[in-house]
Write a structure and sequence with these properties.
The chain has 10 helices and 9 strands. By secondary structure, it is of the alpha/beta class. It binds S-adenosylmethionine. Residues 49, 51, 55, 80-83, 85-86, 101-104, 107, 128-129, 143-145, 164-165 line the site of S-adenosylmethionine.
């Protein structure tokens, strides 16, 4: 569906104004104000990343691994939750209370609204990745900022989506290293870590995981476009 068709289908306000915004380079999802993700509907605005198809795949694979490897109740935390699309979907699909963290209070406002709208059970924490947490988990899931500062990205993304959600130091690897370096005291003995990654980062993240977590099993997996997009770490 083209952006104009999408707008005409989903936008209920002043269509002429909406078309002007579209022409000026505002993403259609921000104009409409909500987006579908894994069968649920999420409010979005300029304070949150627009949920991506790849992230639906991350969630889908995570649900399957959780069902295969863990017994309920599974403790899950979503680091860098943004709109809440990951944590809220996991809560709904697995029938669990999930924890979720973001450093942006504006993003958390959107996530809280989405949690209520979807009747999910998520505890939200404001802070830096693992720092606000005081529990142990079976699963850490994260789609952190992973774009390096010198990478060319689409103008529409660069101009509109929050830079806090996009960029990370150390060639985009900063948050993976921070999480992997510090996660042990937040994890139970058997655990899984699920990451969405940039398509060139798989081997590097695998090495970081082996460096900090030792004898774990690491699976670098591809998205539908056949690019490395997910890392799953199992212990
Ligand atoms: C790539 S977005 C992912 C958002 C959402 N999970 C998704 O998949 O659509 C990364 C998120 O991490 C958050 N973030 C950035 N730095 C952070 C930090 N130091 N601690 C916690 N969250 C952070 C951003 O605010 C943003 O919401």
């Amino acid at each position: 569906m083209s952006d104009i068709e999408y707008l005409k289908k989903y936008y209920s306000g002043d269509i002429d104004n909406a078309l002007k915004l579209l022409e000026s380079g505002v993403p259609v999802q921000y104009i409409v104000g909500n987006v579908d993700f894994y069968g649920y509907n999420f409010l979005v605005n300029k304070n949150v990343l627009i949920p991506r198809f790849e992230t639906e795949e991350l969630v889908d694979r995570t649900i399957k691994y959780v069902q295969k490897f863990f017994n309920n109740p599974v403790r899950i935390v979503d680091l860098g939750c943004g709109s809440g699309c990951i944590s809220i979907t996991l809560s709904k699909e697995l029938g669990l209370t999930v924890d979720a963290v973001d450093i942006s209070s504006d993003a958390l406002d959107v996530a809280r609204e989405n949690c209520i709208k979807n009747n999910a059970s998520v505890n939200f924490y404001l802070g830096n990745m693992l720092e606000p947490l005081h529990d142990r988990y079976d699963v850490i899931i994260s789609n952190p900022p992973y774009i390096s500062y010198d990478e060319e990205i689409d103008e529409i993304v660069k101009k509109n989506e929050p830079s806090l959600a996009l960029y990370a130091d150390n060639d985009g690897l900063y948050f993976y290293e921070e999480i992997l370096k510090n996660c042990k005291k937040y994890l139970n003995d058997r655990f899984m870590i699920a990451f969405e990654i940039g398509c060139t980062q798989g081997d590097k993240i695998k090495n970081i995981a082996l460096k900090y977590l030792g004898d774990v099993s690491v699976s670098v997996e591809k998205d539908l476009s056949d690019r490395d997009r997910f890392v799953f770490i199992f212990n």
